[in-house]
Amino acid sequence: MNIHTKFFGEVDIKEESIIEFPNGLPGFEQETRFVLLDIDEQSIYHSLQSVEQAEVALIVTNPYLFFRDYEFILDDNTVNLLDIQNSEDVVILSVLTLKDPFKDTSANLQAPIVLNSKNNKAKQVILKDTEYETKHHIISNGKGV
Amino acid sequence: MLILNRKLNDSIQIGDDIEIKIISIDGDQVKIGIDAPKSVDVYRKELYIKIQEENQEASNTTNDLLNLLKKPNKD
Predict the structure, then answer these.
(1) B38-51 pLDDT tens trace
(2) C-alpha distances in angstroms, B42 versus A31, A51, A75, B52?
(3) Which partner from A49, A65, A66, B29 sits 20 to 30 angstroms from A141, CA to CA?
(4) Residue numbers in A near B61 (CB within 8 A)
(5) In 3D, which of A19, A92, A23, A84 has the Cα closest to residue A57?
(6) H/E element holding A53?
(7) Closest-approach residue (CA) in chain A for B52
(8) Cβ B51–A56 below 8 Å, yes or no?
(9) pTM value?
């Protein structure tokens, strides 16, 4: 099926690649269906693009490329909601807030996106009682790529 | 918005399975107990708003900014 995207014009996506966010995303509660589109050739950065709203797209990345020691406990609520059976199926993504210059770009480590790659269900989890913040510079704090 | 008067140890029932109880009152601090199913996320409002705002800001990416990702080490 063809969808309108924020960065890549009209894109043909496969129905089975659609990721379902049963609760939407904070700030975009109405959007429950997204796809991941690669941005760079190394496939480090992706656009989490709403299937319905072209203008809704968040840049996401694998946080472990930048923050090797990143860790948090996945609550039972999320495990149940996403029907996670096996920890190996879990994919973690962090939302980036891009800035120019690039060194000001930050990752939101307080609200990781948890994806069950088995059924393509996902949720942006909001961590409570954590030291992680919504803005961690990926260059200075992380090791960079 | 529905506004209710409640005293210490009084509760509010929302739907079948959510109970909100006034646990203690100390000046302008109110301690509230919440009984809700695990499928319901409960957050302090300011935390949820913070994440909403961060997502909104993150979604303001322009094509110019996106180009930075193709050469991320060049500043």
Answers:
(1) 878 899 999 999 99
(2) 20, 28, 13, 15
(3) A49
(4) 6-7, 57-59, 98
(5) A19
(6) none
(7) A27
(8) no
(9) 0.89
